[in-house]
Design goal:
65% helix; two-stranded antiparallel ribbon; mainly alpha; single chain; 2 strands; 9 helices
Amino acid sequence: MSKTTMRVRQKKWDFFNRECKAASLRRDDFLDRSLPGEIALFDQIDPCDETGELWLKQTWVHHWSSSDTDLQPVPLLLSDSVIKKLNSVCATKAVPRDAFFDCALAFLSERLYEAVVVIKNPRTNKDLISQLGDVYNDPRDELTEADRSRFITETVEEWRAHRDLALLKDDFYKTRLSYKKSRVDTEKELLQL
């Protein structure tokens, strides 16, 4: 294990730390096990061209979150192989390491959230699976399958309204981190409107 430092959004980092602690996860170990899969997905995106690289370096902090732009340096202990692969792929894709880590952290925090709800209180009914189970296990005989389907749809829609599902899309890294001149020009035009 070697020490490396990432600049991270303060609020997002605090949330991630709280979730790791609540789940009894050793944060750096969790990152060391999770990042290789995220780096492999990241490695599949098209690299930025020179214009895209410069745009991403200048804008990634303010572009994705206007409310959480305070960055803090955070030391991490990661395996040498993870650090080497991270540095290599970021260089190949012409993407700042901190920008990639920001995206990976957002994804991992979103995935941890639902699990931590259950870990904090295994008898909770606040997670999606428990809520769906409540609908199917409702002992009322008067509930028809149409009622159950409607309740399930309503439950899922309410859950979706409180989650950032864009983080879970397969093209999340491409959407956030792959920039060419044409895309930069389009975004600049939109910002001027």
